[in-house]
Specification:
Radius of gyration: 18 Å
Bound molecules: inosinic acid
Number of helices: 5
CATH class: Alpha Beta
Distance between the termini: 11 Å
Largest sheet: 6 strands, mixed
Order of helices and strands: EHEHEHEEEHH
Helix content: 25-40%
Number of strands: 6
CATH architecture: Alpha-Beta Complex
Length: about 210
């Protein structure tokens, strides 16, 4: 069995990625960070999604001696000049406070809408996924990068209980529901992360 480490402690994400890989290959076992409890946290000190994804995939490949995949994602709002972008998880200060982050973006949009009733409400979720290989592997020292995007627009107040982060205030292009009103499967089929994952999967299978 070949092995790959996915930079997450979320069992759901591992199962989902394993399912995606199993459609293309049957001999890959996906490990997560919970399988390496001594792995220190990697500081996301980059200024782009790609830098952060690479910081994580390289550090995990070095620590685990296994091929490693890491993603970084964020919400890019046109009217905010691309903010919160790479800082999406800590936009309101504390890391991962989804409600405070969402409220802050809504407050910024409300302030702008008072100045411009035709405010551009377009936004996009972006995800970059990086694949790195450990010393001794035929691909050691090479990194592979794939990106996925989900364009859409922000609404004025939250709707829906699924998903996480900014999902309740985001309507993907072509839909009328927010991404928090979609099922997990519906969201995966169009999401920035789903798209990036589906692009990196065949590369991983070929190089593992
Ligand atoms: P990370 O890639 O897990 O570090 O996510 C960065 C942040 O971007 C998250 O904490 C969320 O605030 C936001 N984000 C990324 N992907 C999504 C998504 O699919 N829905 C809602 N928010 C997201």
């Amino acid at each position: 069995m070949k092995q790959v480490v996915l930079a997450t402690r979320n069992k759901g994400k591992i199962v989902e990625f394993e399912r995606l890989l199993s459609e293309l290959a049957s001999d890959i076992h996906v490990l997560g960070l919970s399988d390496f409890p001594d792995m220190p946290d990697v500081e996301e000190s980059g200024t782009t999604l790609q830098e952060n994804a690479l910081l994580k995939s390289r550090a995990i490949a070095a620590f685990t001696s296994l091929p490693s995949l890491a993603d970084d994602s964020g919400l890019f709002v046109s009217a905010l000049g691309g903010d919160p972008g790479v800082y999406s998880a800590r936009w309101a200060g504390a890391h991962g406070d989804d409600e405070a982050n969402t409220e802050k973006v809504l407050g910024q949009m409300r302030a702008l809408a008072q100045l411009d009733p035709n405010l551009d409400r377009s936004a996009s979720f972006k995800c970059v996924i990086a694949l790195s290989f450990p010393k001794g592997h035929a691909q050691a020292g090479r990194d592979f990068i794939e990106q996925g995007e989900m364009p859409g627009a922000l609404i004025e107040s939250p709707r829906g209980d699924h998903g996480f982060g900014y999902d309740p205030i985001f309507i993907p292009s072509g839909l009328t529901l927010t991404s928090a009103e979609l099922s997990a499967e519906q969201k995966d089929s169009i999401s920035h992360r789903g798209r990036a994952m589906r692009q990196i999967a065949p590369i991983l299978i070929e190089l593992l």
